[in-house]
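call fold target=ABC transporter substrate-binding protein
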Amino acid sequence: MNKQMMGLGLSLGLLAIVGLAGCGTTQAQSKSKDATLGVTLVGNPATADPAISGDVNSSSMIAQTEEGLYTLDKNGKVVAGVAEKVVKPTQNGTVYTFKIKKNAKWQNGDPVTAQDFVTSFDWQVNPKSKSQVANKLKYLKNYAAVQSGKLDPSKLGVKALNANTLQLTLSKPQPWLPDILATAEYPMKTDLFKKYGSHYGTSAAKTMSEGAYKLVGWSGNSDSWTYVKNDHYWNAKNVQIPKVSVQVVKDAGTAVNLFKSGKVQETYLTGQYIKQNAKNPEMTTTLNSSMRFLEFNDKRTVTHNTKVRQAFSYIVNRNQVTNNVLQDGSQAAKSLIPTGDGNDPQTGEDFAKEVGNLVSYNPKKATALWTQAKKELGIKKANLELLTADTDEQQHVAQYLQQQAQKYMPGLTISIKALPLAQQINKGSQGNYDIDLDGWTTDWRDPADFLQMADGTSSVNFTKWDNAHFTNLMSEIDNTAKYTTQQRWNLMKEADTYVTQQAGLVPLYQQAKAHLVSKQVGGLKYTMMSDAQYKYAYWK
């Protein structure tokens, strides 16, 4: 799971490229099998430390250079990674014991050990790391006590039984744990972490890879770097692309031009460019496992008011946002949970469809709620700042929200603060904002991952909305030992309905992702939960 404000940050370009629509690219000449693959990334990664990575740009970089106990095969299915096999838990689903592959190596040839996973997991939950993704491991035994500082991280339910045997002990069953182990949890080189501590992962020189590629030339604020094949990777013989050159390109028009000129072979598409390339065989589009929403700082007087938050929900014509502002295949939100994030254990019905549409566009109701809120607050006017990332997509949506709010909420002035992704994350995590145009991408199919964004006990709840009823619902949802799968499902439906109606978060849209992939390149596949993995790519 990743912050997208952060990570829902595919940039949006709304300028047309003449003659691009429906045409192929100029990438006609064949490539040598040893040629470098050129790709783009929409923003700068904040860290290479897998224990604290909370944005999708960092997660993208880490996923190409590290490998967890499990990994995803070329079709997005969970398979064994560094572990010898996918294991079945014992003791009522609470104990997992893994054997580390003996040929799993770091880029310097050192063996990957069970302790390297212990180091990473301990640091992730250690409150000193200030990890925004600590709760990915909240089902580990003693998680809450370690996170609160009451117990030493060494008491966490992760142990190295010997050099190549790792054991995870959970406080209760977690059926979706394999997804997390395949997409979000990686080891850290123990001796390197002891050397650099909290500076681990701040540059390529202060991290180490054990995945298909090693990270080269990334300084922490670089706009370009490379992934170089890791010859010590246990499956290196099947990695066909020896080098991947990465460029940060925030402007979609620039990205398209780089692709068209043959300088990159994979890049993102947004806005008008998607419409223009509707018939281009080199374009691939996938609905993403992400939701964009508005967060309101519950510690500030105006945005604490429920009617203010509800008014904002009613000013948003979500179909207009997706069809006219974005034009990229994104889908209007109906609740906080995106389509495809889970199926009813009895009927198989999609969660979002089963819950139904909980939001609507009603400017008159928005104005009435705002008028009531002003009376409750004893104000006639208000000035609020809307925080957003500096990508075109987010800024265009922010401008739409600004226009709608000032039109239908008289006396309200909205200013927009656009920042680079990492800075937006930092500002949001510190609670230094009024309204945040934020988002979340999940790593597994379970609605609770989105619901916990509004949980008063969650480290990723940047709103600090602390509603006792909702928090209690989340506590019940987390109690997998007490509730059956169907009971838990019903509790999640109740929680989704409650948080949406109370506007604890205001859902906007489920994002689509679109890419141009050169017809010279094979093996790059995208799923709802994952982007393409370069270790499966090859030159045709």
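return ok
Residues 392-408 form the longest helix (17 residues). The CA atoms of residues 429 and 462 lie 6 Å apart.
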